[in-house]
Amino acid sequence: MGRARHNVFAKSSSQRYVVIWDPQWRIIDCLRPSPDSDPRAAFADAIARLERDGWTAQSGAEFGFTFLTRADERRLVTITGRDPFNSAAQSFSPF
After folding, report:
1. Other CB atoms closer than 10 Å to residue 42's CB: what's the count?
2. 0.70 surpassed by pTM
């Protein structure tokens, strides 16, 4: 059985979120690009904005997330289709 791969950068009419988290999963910033915009460009713009503020990406962002550092601080930037302010359970339970 093959592994399903979800392309977070695929064009979609649904809302996407570019979220900046701290190491304790607290939301620092949440950007909501328009649903029909290019998700890859919105994600790259968020990373570029952080880099202009002195943050350094620790890896490439081809999988829809990357960690950035500045001095002793660390942030996680992700792009997701799930509203980060939605507090509903995020895992599947068969019970």
Report:
1. 18
2. yes
